[in-house]
Each structure stands twice: as C-alpha cells, then as structure tokens.
C-alpha cells in the first residue's frame, strides 16, 4: 500500500511543463493538433517580435507576418499568382513522378537481385554526391532556357536519392516472406511484385514524401534561369527591386504548397495501404 500511494504521490507531483519532455509518452490526436497549432503560433509571435525589434530604417527588409500575408493575398487577387503556383506545382509533380517511374522499379529490382545491385549501385551511389545545380550549364546547352531544362533539373535533384531510399526499403523486407512465397511455388515475378513490392510499399511512400520535399528545395533554383513564370520567377523579379514582402510571400506559398503535398501523400497512403493505417 505504501509503494502504491508513494507512486500516486510522485505521479501527481510531476510538473505539467515536464510532460512535453516525457520519453515515449503517447500523444492523442487532439493533443497532437493543439501542440502543432501552439508551435505555429509561437513561430509567428517570434517573427512579429523580430520585426518590431528591427530598426525602423531596416524594418522593410523583415516585414511582419501580417504584411507578408497581405502581400500574398494581393498577389493572388490582383496579380494572378495562382497561375504561377500552378506552373510551379506542375514542374514539381511532373519531374517527381517521372523520377518515380524510374526509381521505384529500379530500386525494387536492385533490392531483390544482389548481382544486379552490385552492378548498378556503386554508380548510382556516386551520382548522389553531385549537386543538381552543377548541371544547370549542361542542361542549358542541351535543352536551352526551356521548361524541359527546369524539369530535368528537378528530376536530377531527387532521382538518385530516391533510388537509394527505395533500395533500403526493399532490403528491409523480411526474408521469411520471400522464402515462404518460394516454398508455396510463387513465380519470380509474383514474388517481386506481390510480396516484396507490397511489403516495401509503406516505406517507399514515406521515401517519396521525403524526396518530393527535397524537390521543392530545388524549385527556386530551377526557376531563376530564364524563367518567365512560376513562384521562383516572381521571387527573382521582386529581388531586383528589393521587395522583400513579395519574396517572403513566395517562400510562404512554397511552404503551403509543400504542406498540402504532404497531406495528399498521407491521404493517398491511407486509402491505398489499408493494412498500414495504424502505423
């Protein structure tokens, strides 16, 4: 009884502010939402404080959150900014899904067949260390200042890392699943597609979510070279005239677009992978 009462006293004496640092504590959906909103509010409060702490002569180089949101609203309503957002989204998704068409089958096949992995993986791993931006002069020579050049740059920014992540996801599939399928007489094609592919798919979608976020980081780089449209082009034109509010509105637009993309991947995974919903 003494031990039980002492535990009750100790648990009751835990300070509320220490709960956020409690190891491995479960978080409910409501608590997760409240903490997420609280974190966002804290971020905007710090931003507002930084704006008001900046000397008046330099405050236009750090506009307040209200100014940035007002500028974003103005761009959408008066300057047809949604058209630029749509063009940037097209470039991101078209290049990324082209990379997926190459990376997903190649990564799965490399994970299933060790000799093929030994043949291809050293070269693919080496390409990961080459910055995509270094290909801009070469892509301009090949394609000129066209949309194809921008799509190619975004493609190169994610393809090699995506192959590596999908290879890791495939190699993480339990060997017992493959052995059981072989014992039951499944063909090689059935094992690769229906056993390994299905088992690795949750991790593959996670890899896709992470890598499309990397693709967004290359968006402005892709759109600063001879671009007439897109979020990056709007930001570069604003930079020439020191319009920091438009630049930050563009950054905010990319962030919003990225969050919506992540939600899209989560919803897609929820419906395509019902066996993985709890995770």
In short:
This protein is an all-alpha fold and 279 residues long.
CATH superfamily: MetI-like
How many structural units, i.e. domains?
A: 1
CATH architecture: Orthogonal Bundle
Unreliable segments (pLDDT under 50, ≥5 consecutive)? 5-12
Mean pLDDT, all residues: 85
Q: Main sheet, how many strands, which sense, barrel?
A: none
Number of helices: 12
Q: Radius of gyration, rounded? A: 24 Å
Which word captures the global form? globular
The CATH topology assignment is: MetI-like fold
CATH class: Mainly Alpha
Query: N-to-C SSE series?
Result: HHHHHHHHHHHH
**Percent range of helical residues:** over 70%
Distance between the termini: 39 Å
Strand content: under 5%
**Structural classification:** mainly alpha
Overall strand count: 0
Please explain how this structure is put together.
It contains twelve helices and no strands. The chain has 279 residues and is mostly helical. The protein has a single domain, classed as MetI-like fold, CATH 1.10.3720.10. α3 (65-78) packs across α12 (244-272), α6 (136-143) crosses α7 (147-171) and α11 (231-240) packs antiparallel against α12 (244-272). Mean pLDDT is 85; it is low at 5-12.
